[in-house]
Amino acid sequence: MLSRPDTLPSVVRRMTAGRMLLGGASVEAVAEALHLSLQTVRRYKAIVDEGGLDALGKMGVGGRASVLDREALDWIAAALRGPARAHGFESDTWTNARLRELIERRYGVRYSRVYIWQIATNLGLGHLLSKSRR
């Protein structure tokens, strides 16, 4: 259920940026097309210019290891596939804030909005999180 590092959305987007840069796209065009910051694309360009796509591919995915083990991630995936109402929320819609609250209630850890999105995305379920704040 968990993605391999080379299939993580952030890695796929990084490699797409590298290919676009090698193909002659400007830093600005890549940043706009892939919704990346100019600073990030400039960093990718420097890496590609120095060592090619291989160097870009060897970049780590960052962050420390999650406290959530495989069993916890499987539980989270199952929860996301069902209605949020089943976990005490007012409607069936899943939001980042609701998933964050659920993880905190169940596992006693509080993650940033970005990491919550990354968990859902790594599970292949990021599309289930509504853009709504609550």
TrEMBL record:
**Listed SUPFAM superfamilies:** Homeodomain-like (SSF46689)
- Identification of the protein by name: Transposase
InterPro entries with a match to the protein in the record: Homeodomain-like_sf (IPR009057)
Give the organism the record lists. Caballeronia zhejiangensis
Species lineage: Bacteria, Pseudomonadati, Pseudomonadota, Betaproteobacteria, Burkholderiales
